Amino acid sequence: MKFEDLLLEIGGFGRFQILILFILCLPRINLPMHFLLHNFLAATPSHHCAIPHQEAFVNLTTEEVLLISIPREPDGTFRSCEMFSQPQFHLLLNSSLQPENDSIIQHCQHGWVYDHSQFTSTISTQWDLVCEQRGLNQATATFFFIGVTMGAVVFGYLSDRFGRKAMLLLSLVCSVVFGMLSAASVSYSMLAITRTLTGVALSGVSLIVLPLGMEWVDIQHRTFSGILTSIFWSIGNMLLAMVAYLVREWHWLLVAVTGPCLLSIVCLWWVPESARWLIANGKVKQAHRHLLRCARMNGRKNFAVSPEVRNGRSRHVFLLCHKKPGESYSYISLFRTPVLRKISLCSGAVWFGVAFSYYGMSMNLTGFGLNMYLSQFVFGIIEIPAKMIMYVVVNRAGRRQSQAWALILTGLCIGANVIIPKPFTSLRSVIAIMGKAFSEAAFTTVFLYTSELYPTVLRQNGMGYTSFVARLGGALAPLVFLLDEVWRSLPEVTYCGVAVCCGSVAFLLPETLNMRLPEGIEDIE
């Protein structure tokens, strides 16, 4: 007897499954509030060199002091990172006469003055992460995703070894601790370390929530549960825009986005361990206790378990157990057999492309002609209809075609905005929103698709490995913005090329539509 048959006996998809899914959706809301926090945490407001006071400036206005102290860009705006070594008083007579001698221009010597009209403070203004230190500002996101990358390896293995629920609880508790320590950071080094550790902790949440929910759901409702969980990511996206709009000080912003994890910790009390994982690991008594609870809540009161089954002596229980005594699996197991090796290599490439393009778009809120808070909100709200459409598409066209074309079209939208001239703001915004919708569709599908590709005994190892590769993409995505110093459009061209190539790799994966979840490696091979 397969586990899906057992699920049908206890109600398939009833009140028990709905309760679990909604509780697991709470931590899902919290994820984008941290994963995309860099947009607001490290925002760089307009700035210019600080000008030391001189007696000669007494009768001059602020605008006149800037005029004689800071060189201008060709468009007339003041430069952010340079100043005159000596005041150029002749510019008061004719401001259009910009000095041609670069020897009188130097880098900022006395710090910077920031425009605080939009942000009370960010880490950029706190530690002057601008100009020569701009790379450290972008590196903050990279440190976080390096943490998420390490967490994917750690929690992927631990949740297959010690269970889904225990590791989810551990990751939530650690998220609260390190999130609050990040808010209390007194130096850039402390922030970099605590944000990295927060990434490690949140990786467990990201990794475990979807498989734990899906392992309690029957075949017919697997797509629904995957899309539902994903929609709550989009709700978190929109909530981030509203929270960031209301909280403009970076310390309190970190507190505001970390606090909801406490609610998730409390609610996790009502979520049982995965019965599928318990049976696969030979813990039959615990599994049947949860199955009985599920049957009662779903109204299947006639579901009974014999003493032989409770003690693990029933033949039908042994048929469910795919893990032999003393047998253990690791990440190496993903590459030992031919079919699993192909799945692992191809899905790794797809995950890299999905994350690389998604975070490349999500961290460029000011590049599409909209207010950054509005961009964040619109990018969140457009994901919901995209996911609704994907619910239909993945059930009609299948997982493989949906995954491939969603990622390819993401790349084409990014590439289109390289060609469209900057003055066409409205058109660029529409293309960007379409690209974001395709990008989110690709991300939604890849979570569902991957959890169906791997067997139960290796599912969390598989999710851990693919999440590791994805977070490498997420870690590299913000650094690619620094390539604009080589060529202004090089970051967008890079995102486009990677998305199209990785989307094409998805055609090599097997289809999983209406297939039973594999329990052991032999089911895959």
UniProtKB/TrEMBL annotation:
GO cellular component, one term: basolateral plasma membrane
Record GO terms (molecular function): organic anion transmembrane transporter activity; prostaglandin transmembrane transporter activity
Main location: membrane
Residue intervals passing through the bilayer: 139-159, 166-186, 192-212, 224-246, 252-271, 343-361, 373-393
Record localization: Apical cell membrane; Basolateral cell membrane
Protein's membrane topology: Multi-pass membrane protein
Keywords of this entry: Cell membrane, Ion transport, Membrane, Transmembrane, Transmembrane helix, Transport
tRNA processing in keyword set: no
Keyword Ion transport listed: yes
Stored InterPro entries: MFS_dom (IPR020846), MFS_sugar_transport-like (IPR005828), MFS_trans_sf (IPR036259)
CDD domains according to UniProt: MFS_SLC22A7_OAT2 (cd17447)
Protein family according to the UniProt entry: Belongs to the major facilitator (TC 2.A.1) superfamily. Organic cation transporter (TC 2.A.1.19) family.
Protein name: Solute carrier family 22 member 7
Organism (species): Pluvianellus socialis (Magellanic plover)
